[in-house]
Amino acid sequence: MVAVAQSALSGERLREIDGFLAEAWADQARHDERLRGLTVDVRFDRGVAHLDGAVADPSQLRLLRDLVGRLDGVFAVWCRVGVGGRAPVVVDLGCGATKQWPGNLGLDLYPAPGVDAVADLSGSLPLADDSVDVFFAVHILEHLIDFLPLLDECHRVLRPGGVLHVMSPWWRHVNAVADPTHVRLLDVQTIKGVCGQRPPGTPRWYPLHVGNDGASIFADLTPLPPEADPPPKSHLARFFD
User: Are the C-beta atoms of 169 and 215 separated by less than 8 Å?
Assistant: First the structure.
């Protein structure tokens, strides 16, 4: 059964959750032999896990993401981890003057400090195939009448194993309707539709993690190759009704 928050969590509650998560992860890191020798910092901010550092191969990063995402109270796992000596390429979509992390490549419709390239996010992204490790779409999808073309472009540009991080206002929170430039309402079930209800032949996504803190929905999505099996029902049941 999927629990759905009915009201936004207070700042005090979120700080308490962060404290619990930090203690839980520290305890796991001390006792899990698979984590020995990994130089990755894990911190928690309002229920979002931030991973930073480096690992030797992609399997170690997948393990880290999975273990952190299993902790009760984690809404999303945002990752800036180098693999095999290569720093990740991270792109902020619609960043405006504020990037999620300094050093990210910022794309926006309008020029501003922090915007590295002007791009219409409703069209083709000025990025090569398989060239990006991480996309951030933070408070972006709700501004697009049809955001599926943008997701398809992210699917094209992400490298195998890359991740699209989505954060948008939850449809039941006032923030979803308070901004007159919002043209879409989103829910966790919207992410279910993105992952499982697209027509055959369209890009498919695997949900690594999906969450809802009562004010925003979060989704960490990785591209599925055309020949891959769909996500198992047992995995989808973690996040969706």
Answer: yes
CB 117 within 8 A of CB 107: yes
Tell me which H or E stretch contains 195: helix 188-196
What would the pLDDT profile of 54-86 be if each residue is shown by its tens digit?
999 999 999 999 999 999 999 999 999 999 999
Task: Return the structure tokens found at 166.
Answer: 């989505």
The SS3 of residue 48 is strand
Token pair 């993690």 is found at 209
Angle at 217 between CA 19 and CA 231, to 5 degrees: 100
Alpha carbons 206 and 222: distance in angstroms, whole number? 5
Dist CA 56 CA 84 (whole Å): 5
> For the chain, first and last CA: distance in Å?
7
Q: How far apart are CA 153 and CA 125, in angstroms?
A: 7
For 108, 118, 128, 166, 219, the CA distances from 96, given in Å and listed in that order, are 6, 10, 22, 16, 21
- Phi/psi of residue 210, nearest 5 degrees: -140, 135
| Beta strand extents in the chain (DSSP E only) | 39-45, 48-55, 76-83, 90-93, 105-108, 117-118, 132-138, 158-169, 204-212, 216-224
Residue 98 φ/ψ, nearest 5 degrees: -125, 115
Sheet holding 204-212, edge to edge: 117-118, 105-108, 90-93, 132-138, 158-169, 216-224, 204-212
- In the predicted model, what is the mean pLDDT of the chain? 93
DSSP 46: T
